[in-house]
Structure formats: structure tokens, C-alpha cells
């Protein structure tokens, strides 16, 4: 007897839905919403790194582009909430087309070139005051409303983020099982073999960048409404590195792992706040220790433990219900 | 006096470039020996700057002692993280990306430990070198910058001699080129790897002292400098020793000149654009050997 595979995901979703019912502290709800936004980012990164094996350090840039486009449209032109999210995603996707020439780079070269891209985008955000407000940041982002109803309350906004996270998760799940997703994992395993099987490398990789950038742009749009003030220091290359940590820490290639990784990266420094100055040291040590778990990540370790428990449980039941021969 | 200004800028660019080169060399050597992208190399540099500061102050503003203290501080720190973190991870046969992320973890830890030990205020280095302008055949030369260039060239020359003539240096190269063949020749690859980390850490530590004497030493000086050195190493071709030297110099000069002639706020962007353009033409970098996967 095996554990049904969708069960842990369903339980996790129910827990996530219930969070605002249990936790009323505005600060913590704020942090949890941020973790949901980070999870969307990590899912996009998982598509790049976990499925296609593309180490891109440019996701922070697309996050920033999405945030600024959505924030500016909302603050200056009063564009409705969902449209600005879409615009943020589309703008980030359009910007990802700039990366088309460099997708053919491999490994380290790709990582450093995309890192260069995020440094350039950060400098543009910081210095083009007419466009982004420069180092003062982008202010006066209105409260989000859906069909005329305000969704700015901490709990409602949390649920909005959760709905979008679930949509992105389902989309990524579908992608991973599609022809495109299989092409990406073929590229990840062996580029030459993939090319020989008729996969267009540059096309598939560019598409992968595009989808991941769109995801990061939507997350950026949500972040604009989440903090309602955008500062260039939110979108340095550190953001890209943090997104990479999220995707790897939970379990490389696993979508649930990306979500768990995002929660760990966002929540751990908050949880460790009581340890004061030791906080970031403990965080760094935790990152190192989790890396020792190998490919599994947190989710892999947890499911290994769960399978062991479950196996123990069912073998015990089998032992109890086994018909005994009369002796 | 436009010539004078040009030379001043060039010297400044070369001095910064030498510092990038020293760090980039370490990054390149580590990649060649272990395939690890060492994101903590900038933090090793910072530790060197801090230990150099402490030993220099303790010895009463002795520049040589600061340099020695920084060099050994950086070397010891690099050996410590190799033995304490990377080797156990490699022994567990975790994927390479995990080791790379562990280097980011190491960088976070080192940064915050340094903040605890040396505080969060930038530390002003005592005047290690002469600061009065020297006039050589009509041109004013900053002795500080000149000293940095001369010292860096000496260090890199020593490295070249070490690689060419010493037993340990030759063993390190052999182990990096082909670990299996090196093992068959009786070389301990493990020891060669530790030596690689020691030498790369010492160079980063020396770079830290030089950078600290130019500006300040502070707990967060390492990461961005490390990233720039990384870019320099990729520019020259990861894994190539001359590539790291040239890449560092080139990156330093580009950065300084674009700050001077284009805009100070976009000086980092110019370097990145040059990097991306070079990678488009030569994906392995300027001195990279095609065919080797790094």
C-alpha cells in the first residue's frame, strides 16, 4: 500500500488556507503573504534550474521589472489590480527576450551573464528617476481592489496571493508533464542527445526563460501591492541569489520543494529574530547543513521520513491482520 | 594636463584591477581544481582585510605585518572552510549546485561572524604606505596606487614561480588537470586541493589588505567585490591563470574609465555589458580553453 501522492499537497493547501483564520497578528500575516509571493518566484526558478538545469541569476531583475511596471501603472494611471499584475508579467516576459542571445551560454557563463543582467537592471531602477523614482523609490501605490471590492486587508490579500500561487503551481505542474516540460528535462540531462532527438535548444530555452520571467513579473506585481512602496534596494542581485537558494533548499526539481524552500528562506530569519545578532549566522549554517542532504532537499527528507513512518505503520497492520496458521 | 589625468585614472584602474586579479586568481584555481564556484572568495578577502587590520594595528602601523597578517588570515580561513564544509559535502557526493549554494551559506556566516568580531562600523586603515604624491618626470603618481600595483605584480610573479618550480605547485596543477592520472603518479589529490584553497585564500587575504588600505575595511566589503572578481575570472576564462590576471586588470580599468568618462552611477553596468558582449563572442572567455566543461 502506498501513500496517495496528492494527499500531502492537499493537506498543505488546507493548512495554508487556514493560516489567516488562526493567525490574526497583522505582522505575521504580512510575512506569510511575502512567503507566498516568494513561493511564486521559487516556482519560476524551479522551471529554469530544476527542470531545464539552467542556472539563471536574473530572476530578481524580472521580479523588479514586474513590480515597477505594476506599481507605476497602478500609482500613475489607476489601472485595475489584476490588469497591472498581467502587465507586470508581460513586461518581464518582454524583457526576457533581451536574454535570447545569451541562452546558448552554458553553466557558469550563463550564471554570470544573467547576474550581469540583474546588476544592469538594478542600476537602471536606481538611476532613472523619471521612470522609477530613483533611490527615493516608487510611492503611493493604491490599495488593491478586485471588481470594486477592496482586497487590501491582510487576510484577504493573503488569500489573493494564495490563489495566484495555486494557479502558478498548477500551471507549472502541467508544464512539467507537457511536451515542452519533457523537452526541458531532456535538455537538462543531455543537450546533445536532446538536440539529436529534434528538440530546438535555443527555442526551448528561450521559452523557458520567458515563462519563468512572466512568473517572476507577476510575483513582482503582487509585491508592489504587498509593500505599496518600492525601493531599488529590494531588487539587487542578492534577490536573484536568494531565489536560487529557495529553489535548491527545498529539493531541486520539486515544485512542492520550491514552495517549502521559499517559506524556509522567508520565515527562518523571522523565527530566528529572537537570537539577535546570531540570526544570520544560524541561517547560513542551516543553508550549509541542508545542502548536505543532497538532491533531496527538505521535501525529499520529509517524504523519506513520512514513507518510513507509513511503511512501518502498514507493515505493522499487515502483521496484525495476517492470518496465522493454527499450531 | 589631460595626459596627467589619463595616467592617474589608468593607474587607479590598474590598482583596482590588480586587486580583482588576485581574488579572481583564487576563484579560477578553485574552479579548476574542484569545479566549485566559490561565492565566499570575497568574504575570505574580507577576513584577510580584517586580520591584516588587527595585526597592523597591533604591530603599530607596520605595513609589512599587516600584509603578512592578512595573507595568513585569508589562507587559514580558506583552508578552514575547505576542511570543515566543502570536503565533507564532496565526501557525501552531493550535486555540485549544492556545494555552490553552501559557499553562499559560508559567505553569509563569515560576514556575520566578522560583524560580531570587528563591529559594523567601517575600520579606517592606518596609513600603511606613503600618501604624498610622487612626481616622476613631470607626472604626479600616487605612491599608494603604485605600491598596490608593484605588490600585486610581485605576488602574482611569486605564484607563477610556485606553479612552475615547486613540487607542491606542480602537484596542484597535475591534480587539477587530471585527478586520476595524478593519483597514479602518487600525488595526494586531497592535499593538492587543500593547498589550492590555501594559496587562493592567501592571495585573497593580501588583496583584502590592499583594498582596505585604499578605502576602508568593513564586514560587508567582500560580497560585491567577490562578485566583480568572479566576473573578471569569467571574462578571462574560468580556470585559466593568465585569464584571471588579464580579466581582473581589464575589468578594473574598464570600471575606472567608465566612472570617469561615462557616468559614476553606471560604472558597474558598463563592465557587465562588456562581459556579456565578450561572452557572446567567446563563450569560454578570453583565455578559456574550448571543450572543457567548467
Task: Explain what this protein looks like in three dimensions.
The complex is a heterodimer of chains A (327) and B (294). Chain A contains 14 helices and two strands, in the order ααααααββαααααααα. Chain A has a two-stranded antiparallel ribbon with strand order 1-2. Chain A has helices spanning 6-22, 26-51, 59-77, 81-96, 107-127, 129-132, 154-177, 179-189, 191-196, 201-227, 237-249, 255-271, 279-291, 297-321, and strands at 145-146, 149-150. Chain A has a domain at 13-236. Chain A is globular and about 75 Å long. In chain A, 73% of the residues lie in helices and 1% in strands. Chain B is mainly α. Chain B is built from eleven helices and four strands, in the order ααααβββααααβααα. In chain B, the strands form two sheets. In chain B, strands 1-4 form a two-stranded antiparallel ribbon. In chain B, strands 2-3 form a two-stranded antiparallel sheet. Mean pLDDT of chain B is 87; it is low at 290-294. Chain B: Its main location: membrane. Chain B: The chain crosses the membrane at residues 6-27, 64-84, 96-114, 134-163, 192-217, 229-257, 269-288. Chain B: This is Amino acid/amide ABC transporter membrane protein 1 (HAAT family). Chain B: It is a multi-pass membrane protein.
Keywords:
heterodimer, A: about 325 residues, mainly alpha, 14 helices, B: mainly alpha, two-stranded antiparallel ribbon, 11 helices, globular, disordered C terminus
Amino acid at each position: 500500500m502506498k501513500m496517495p501522492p496528492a494527499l500531502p499537497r492537499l493537506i498543505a493547501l488546507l493548512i495554508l488556507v487556514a493560516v489567516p483564520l488562526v493567525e490574526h497578528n497583522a505582522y505575521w500575516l504580512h510575512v506569510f503573504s511575502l512567503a507566498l509571493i516568494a513561493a511564486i518566484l521559487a516556482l519560476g526558478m524551479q522551471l529554469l534550474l530544476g527542470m531545464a538545469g539552467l542556472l539563471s541569476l536574473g530572476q530578481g531583475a524580472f521580479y523588479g521589472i514586474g513590480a515597477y511596471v505594476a506599481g507605476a501603472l497602478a500609482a500613475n494611471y489607476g489601472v485595475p489590480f489584476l490588469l497591472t499584475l498581467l502587465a507586470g508579467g508581460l513586461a518581464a516576459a518582454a524583457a526576457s527576450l533581451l536574454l535570447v542571445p545569451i541562452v546558448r551560454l552554458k553553466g557558469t557563463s550563463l550564471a554570470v551573464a544573467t547576474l550581469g543582467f540583474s546588476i544592469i537592471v538594478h542600476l537602471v531602477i536606481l538611476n532613472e528617476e523619471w521612470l522609477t523614482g530613483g533611490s527615493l523609490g516608487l510611492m503611493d501605490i493604491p490599495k488593491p481592489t478586485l471588481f470594486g471590492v477592496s482586497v487590501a486587508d491582510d487576510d484577504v490579500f493573503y488569500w489573493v496571493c494564495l490563489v495566484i500561487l495555486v494557479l502558478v503551481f498548477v500551471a507549472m505542474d502541467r508544464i512539467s508533464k507537457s511536451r515542452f516540460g519533457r523537452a526541458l528535462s531532456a535538455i537538462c540531462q543531455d543537450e546533445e542527445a536532446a538536440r539529436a532527438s529534434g528538440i530546438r535548444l535555443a527555442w526551448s530555452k528561450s521559452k523557458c526563460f520567458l515563462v519563468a520571467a512572466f512568473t517572476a513579473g507577476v510575483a513582482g506585481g503582487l509585491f508592489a501591492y504587498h509593500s505599496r512602496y518600492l525601493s531599488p534596494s529590494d531588487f539587487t542581485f542578492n534577490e536573484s541569489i536568494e531565489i536560487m537558494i529557495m529553489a535548491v533548499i527545498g529539493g531541486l526539481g520539486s515544485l512542492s520543494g520550491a514552495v517549502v524552500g521559499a517559506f524556509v528562506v522567508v520565515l527562518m530569519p523571522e523565527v530566528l529574530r529572537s537570537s539577535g545578532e546570531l540570526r544570520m549566522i544560524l541561517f547560513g549554517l542551516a543553508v550549509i547543513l541542508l545542502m548536505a542532504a543532497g538532491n533531496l532537499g527538505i521535501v525529499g527528507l520529509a517524504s523519506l521520513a513520512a514513507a518510513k513512518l507509513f511503511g512501518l505503520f502498514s507493515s505493522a497492520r499487515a502483521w496484525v491482520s495476517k492470518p496465522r496458521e493454527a499450531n | 594636463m589631460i595626459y596627467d589625468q589619463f595616467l592617474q585614472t589608468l593607474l587607479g584602474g590598474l590598482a583596482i584591477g590588480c586587486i580583482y586579479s588576485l581574488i579572481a586568481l583564487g576563484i579560477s584555481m578553485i574552479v579548476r581544481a574542484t569545479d566549485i564556484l566559490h561565492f565566499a572568495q570575497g568574504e575570505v578577502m574580507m577576513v584577510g582585510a580584517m586580520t591584516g587590520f588587527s595585526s597592523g594595528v597591533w604591530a603599530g602601523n607596520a605595513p609589512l605585518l599587516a600584509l603578512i597578517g592578512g595573507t595568513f588570515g585569508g589562507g587559514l580561513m580558506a583552508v578552514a572552510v575547505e576542511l570543515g564544509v566543502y570536503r565533507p559535502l564532496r565526501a557525501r557526493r552531493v550535486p555540485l549546485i549544492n556545494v555552490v549554494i553552501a559557499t553562499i551559506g559560508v559567505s553569509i556566516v563569515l560576514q556575520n561572524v566578522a560583524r560580531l568580531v570587528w563591529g559594523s562600523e567601517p575600520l579606517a586603515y592606518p596609513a600603511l604606505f606613503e600618501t604624498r604624491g610622487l612626481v616622476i618626470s613631470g607626472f604626479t603618481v600616487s605612491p599608494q596606487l603604485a605600491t598596490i600595483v608593484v605588490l600585486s605584480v610581485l605576488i602574482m610573479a611569486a605564484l607563477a614561480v610556485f606553479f612552475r618550480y615547486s613540487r607542491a605547485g606542480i602537484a596542484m596543477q597535475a591534480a587539477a588537470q587530471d585527478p586520476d592520472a595524478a593519483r597514479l603518479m602518487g600525488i595526494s589529490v586531497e592535499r593538492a586541493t587543500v593547498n589550492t584553497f590555501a594559496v587562493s585564500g592567501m592571495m585573497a587575504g593580501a588583496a583584502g589588505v590592499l583594498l582596505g588600505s585604499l578605502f576602508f575595511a568593513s564586514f560587508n566589503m567582500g560580497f560585491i567585490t567577490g562578485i566583480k572578481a568572479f566576473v573578471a575570472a569569467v571574462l578571462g576564462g574560468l580556470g585559466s591563470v593568465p585569464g584571471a590576471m588579464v580579466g581582473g586588470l581589464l575589468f578594473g580599468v574598464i570600471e575606472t574609465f567608465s566612472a570617469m568618462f561615462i557616468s559614476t552611477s553606471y560604472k558597474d553596468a558598463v563592465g557587465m555589458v562588456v562581459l556579456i558582449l565578450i561572452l557572446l563572442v567567446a563563450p569560454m572567455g578570453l583565455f578559456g580553453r574550448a571543450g572543457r566543461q567548467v
